[in-house]
Amino acid sequence: MTQSQTRTDLRKELHSAAVEPLLPIEKKLIGWSLTIGLVLLVGLALFNHFVPVTF
Amino acid sequence: MSDAIVKDFRPQRADGVVAPINEDWLAVVLGLFIFVLALAALANIDLIGWVVTTSVWGNLGQSLKATSKGYASLGGVGALIATYVALTVVLGAAAAALKSDVKRFVLAFTAVFWIAYASWVIGNFANFAAVTPAEQQKFGVSWSLKLTNEGGYIFALIAGLIIANFFPRFADAVKDAVRPELYIKVAIVILGGVFAVTAAGRLGLASSLILRGIAAIVEAYLIYWAVVYYVARKWFGFSREWAAPLASGISICGVSAAIAVGGAIRARPVVPVLVSSLVVIFAVVEVLILPFIAQAFLAHEPLVAGAWMGLAVKTDGAAVAAGGITESLILAKNAAEGINYQPGWILGTAATIKVFIDIFIGIWAFVLGYIWTNHINVTPEKEKANAWEIWQRFPKFIIGFVVTFAVGLYLALGTPAEIAKNVPAAIGEANTFRVIFFILTFFSIGVLSNFKTLWREGFGKLAAVYLVSLFGFVVWVGLLISWIFFSGIRPPLAG
Fold it and tell me: Are the beta carbons of B237 and A17 separated by less than 8 Å?
């Protein structure tokens, strides 16, 4: 397969690939990431507030 | 899904010869080599004082000189030639270790070095770089763009962009020496020692900053990644194979993350490669815009600006370099107002944030690899993700950064006063090499950024996800988090 054929194939693939619905495991991954991330950020922000930077 | 899997982490030639070392370890070796040579100055043996340094100039003849007064007799041009020869020999050996064609590398590097350094020298011309009225008067110029001397990085980047977009055949001819990842990793290893010297004076502040770097990890991996992956899958309809490396490239650390995650989820090698080219192009756009926005709006919150560069600009090279430009611009603006901050803190904050984010690439790639090979594209047992990959994908140059930081800190704080007082000057010589590796990084990033090719190849949809995610979300959330954790913290005043 030539390089230009590969590029054309990739272009077609990107523009006309069938939509893959989000699987439950992907939804879990997104949901858990955001939840843990936001909880940790709030915790760190509180830490930042109560333990100020030392010079 | 995968017809070929990214498994081997060492460079492989077309004829199948595998290099004995990869680029990451090579960066550690090169960075430590320069660092150790610089430390010889502590024993009054000046091994690298001949390295060339550039000052802001009005008269070209006064722009270059050797870093150390002991080598002043070389003159500027002599120091420049010595630097070129030394780098060519050392990097030529590195190319041999990577099983590249050494002759081709040397020829390509010659072009890369001279064009990149010439751009840097032009960027130091007083009309571009002079900041204060006193400087303008000193150099006899009536106006200046006030880009500071580090604006020279922008000139190197633009030179690279011109070559990539108007002289693509030349760009192709020098590609053997266009290695931004190698150059920036060497620079980051050296930067560990430089940051140690800066931090030694304010250890409490430095450790507080490092602690706050944890917030960056949470943000990049847990918040950015999830949102960008959702946007790519749900709004733009990308397949999982494309969405995972794309989300990793946009949210974590550009090229390294896209490649690590692409390998971990067993994507076809072409997927992370294409994502990486997008990452580099957008990083260029960010470097050209964000430091100036930071100077305009965050000059009085210098560490917010530094953290923002580390969080918002993707790829190690562009982020750390953007930190350097931001530092230069913000220090200059403050100096004009009579506030002289100690240099090194803004760049150090950007680099620390980036290093913190990099540390977890291997772990995140393993988590995704585990989910993919066990739940999404269930693979045979022997192809499933295993914990060994965490170490294989760990960016080894971080080890170099930690080593130089620890050694630098020990030398500055744990040695007798007569040794400790010479540490800043010794590491300063290594820092001059760090600047040169930054210049090579900027130029290389430019040469890799052929906007026309990307457009012609029709990957607008990929670019659209990147554009929406980066400028619609990543940049602004990065600013918010930087503000929450770094506002009100000022670098120590100079002197």
Answer: yes
- Other C-beta atoms lying within 10 Å of the C-beta of residue B134: 9
Query: Residues B279, B314: contact at Cβ < 8 Å?
Result: yes
CA distances from B330 to B74, B198, B426, B483 (A): 34, 17, 26, 16
Q: What is the pLDDT of residues B272-289, one digit of tens each?
A: 888 887 888 888 889 889
Question: Is A9 inside any structural domain?
Answer: no
The reply to whether B456 touches chain A by the CB within 8 Å rule is: no
Q: Cβ–Cβ of B233/A26 closer than 8 Å?
A: yes
B270 Cβ under 8 Å from any chain A Cβ: yes
The torsion of the CA quartet B42, B43, B45, B51, rounded to 10 degrees, works out to -10
Among the listed residues B173, B66, B149, the one whose alpha carbon sits nearest the alpha carbon of residue B428? B66
Instruction: Report the number of distinct structural domains present in chain A.
Output: 1
Contacts with B239 from chain A: Cβ below 8 Å: 17, 20
Q: With an 8 Å Cβ cutoff, are A54 and B270 in contact?
A: no
Nearest to B240 among A10, A20, A45 (CB): A20
A1 shares contact with chain B (CB less than 8 Å): no
The verdict on residue A13 lying in a domain is no
Q: Is the dihedral of CA B369, B370, B372, B378 positive or negative?
A: positive
Q: Which residues pair with B53 in a beta bridge?
A: B65
pLDDT, tens digit (0-9, with 9 covering 90-100), for B8-41? 445 555 566 667 788 889 999 999 999 999 999 9
Domain assignment present for A10 = no
Q: What are phi and psi of B266, to 5 degrees?
A: 60, 40
CB atoms < 10 A from the CB of B201, how many?
A: 14
Burial B340-364 (b: 16+ CB within 10 A, else e): ebeebbbbbbbbbbbbbbbebbbeb
**pLDDT at residue B5 above 50?**
no
B219: left (phi over 0), alpha (psi -120 to 50) or beta: alpha
Q: What are the chain B neighbours of A17 within 8 Å (beta carbons)?
A: 237-239
Residue A6 lies in a domain: no
Between A and B, how many residue pairs show a Cβ–Cβ distance under 8 A?
93
Q: What does the alpha-carbon distance between residue B5 and residue B174 come to, in Å, rounded to a whole number?
A: 28
Burial letters B389-414, b for 16+ CB under 10 A, else e? bbebbbbbbbbbbebbbebbbebbee
Write down the residue that tokens 């890799």 correspond to: B448
Q: Cβ B230–A30 below 8 Å, yes or no?
A: yes
What's the Cα-to-Cα distance from A26 to each of A20, B176, B261, rounded to whole Å?
11, 40, 15
Domain ranges of chain B: 99-486
Asked if B378 reaches chain A (Cβ–Cβ under 8 Å), the answer is no
The closest of B277, B216, B214 to B251, measured between CA atoms, is B216
The reply to whether the predicted model has a pTM over 0.90 is: no
Q: Domain of A45?
A: 19-55
